[in-house]
Amino acid sequence: MDPKGGGFKRDSERPLDGDLLVIDETSMVDVLLMHALLKAVPAHAALLIVGDIDQLPSVGPGQVLADIIGSGAVPVVRLTEVFRQAARSQITVSAHRINQGVMPEVRKPEGDSDFYFVPADDPETAGRRIVDLVKTRIPQRFGLDAMRDIQVLCPMNRGGVGARSLNLALQAALNPAGERKVERFGWTFAPGDKVMQIENDYDKEVYNGDIGYVDDVDVEAGELIARFDARAVTYVFGELDTLSRLTR
Description:
Layout: E1 20-23, H1 31-39, E2 46-49, H2 64-71, H3 84-87, H4 90-99, H5 123-142, H6 163-174, E3 182-184, E4 187-189, E5 194-197, E6 211-218, E7 223-228, E8 231-236, E9 243-245
Parallel strand pairs: 1-2
Antiparallel strand pairs: 3-4, 5-6, 5-9, 6-7, 7-8
Helix pairs in contact: 5-6
């Protein structure tokens, strides 16, 4: 991709080099990207597409992988065997049961497991239980660090157990903001917060999906410093719309 000029550097007139192209995680590829990619595949090359149609579909338009498989126009191989190591994972077993239309096992497991079902009848109860799980129960049971080792995933931004509400509740429980904080674009950022870059920034060399932690907030200078792996990246406060507080 050409980030400055837009579009792609390879196409039918300047195809890719190679005899075999393997595309992994193809469920994430949308119609526009696949169209541009296939134009750049040389006529003599073979194409191998790998992916899982049971994962979330692409953010962009279309369901390319599912439609290619459903078309019957290309040979398809499905992996169906659960090997011994994966069979010990209740996450894997539960996922296969759901795909087969069978309710996963939700009773309390005997001994340790990687799959637990915690019921809640309303959003308020669910929110309190999530905070308790992240702050106390999971760290005590598995020896994990609540700030660094635990990630909460939720299917929506709004609502009582949406990303915004959970972010506020988890920040208050795990990393309450002190004096060194900044409020911008609906978020409060403070040292220790986990953040995610939500758009590509080629000048700062941070990209959509990169996860880091806030090192410092300098109110007088109007700057926030976030660390991605071992690299510090400085944002002026007006650039904080490119950062999202990440639900832990």
